[in-house]
């Protein structure tokens, strides 16, 4: 926290932190495989973008964050899981107006154990439901305003499935914490980048890796009919990698089993990612 290391139970921040009072903070989640970071450079670049979009004081260096992360991974003996970083605007008397205040940002970094490579859902696939997207309009900025996503995920679990897909006016946006892809008639499609969705790092890496393997991924608007008539569907995220979807709103995707193209895409993603851990 702010350049110092603490035991989990001893780390605490001010109740006047704007991250706590206003969700005035941004974050990144980076997977850890074999004690190494996945796509760290890209995650740092997105963190800088999020900070700049919100005009949060930003004098951060990639190398400083990297060293803290590597030390945490080592001290916590983390082989597989994630490294989380959150930067808030800082601590101030509660005031909606933050203009003209160059606060000192609060930085928190921690690790969490999680099974990623052997996550059973990557093999079996997951079941999802569609729900209305009720978030604010700047979803391209990775802020900690995650209540709508948290409600959507919890609602899915209460309905006996694994996750929710956020839909707006009949158009597919993304998963509660993932990007969405569909495969129809052999074509892979994902919603285009816009303010409506987060530009996922896994999404952009996958588009690149597929290109390198002469597999085209089209970025375009996807509506609910496209989704429901897909042969295969999958979700991508830093901690889920490529997760096949086998059921949507109680209906099978394809024959209800994980499809061959998704399996191939999982293989391509893993091969490339393993070659660029840091
Ligand atoms: N969430 N869309 C949303 C709304 C997300 O929250 C995430 C990631 C993604 C995928 O982005 P990436 O590939 O960069 O992880 C898309 C992270 C994993 C989280 O909040 O835990």
Q: Which key features would you list for this structure?
A:
278 residues; alpha+beta; 4-stranded antiparallel sheet; 8 helices; 13 strands; globular; binds N-(5'-phosphopyridoxyl)-D-alanine
Description:
The protein is of the alpha+beta class. It is 29% helix and 27% strand. It contains 8 helices and 13 strands. The strands form 2 sheets. Strands 5, 6, 7, 8, 9, 10, 11, 12 and 13 form a 9-stranded mixed β-sheet that branches. α6 crosses α8 (260-274). The model has no long low-confidence stretch (mean pLDDT 97). Bound molecules: N-(5'-phosphopyridoxyl)-D-alanine.
Number of helices: 8
- Report how far apart the termini are: 22 Å
The helicity comes to 25-40%
Q: What global shape is seen?
A: globular
List the secondary-structure elements in sequence, H or E: HEEHHEEHEHEEEEHEHEEEH
| Strand percent estimate | 25-35%
Average of the residue pLDDT scores: 97
Structural category is: alpha+beta
In total, the number of strands is 13
Radius of gyration from the CA trace? 19 Å
Blueprint of the fold:
Blueprint: H1 18-22, E1 25-33, E2 36-37, H2 40-53, H3 62-75, E3 81-88, E4 106-113, H4 120-124, E5 126-132, H5 147-158, E6 163-168, E7 171-175, E8 179-184, E9 187-190, H6 201-212, E10 217-219, H7 224-228, E11 232-237, E12 241-248, E13 251-252, H8 260-274
Parallel strand pairs: 5-6, 5-12, 9-10
Antiparallel strand pairs: 1-2, 1-3, 3-4, 6-7, 8-9, 8-11, 11-12, 12-13
Helix pairs in contact: 6-8
Bound molecules: N-(5'-phosphopyridoxyl)-D-alanine.
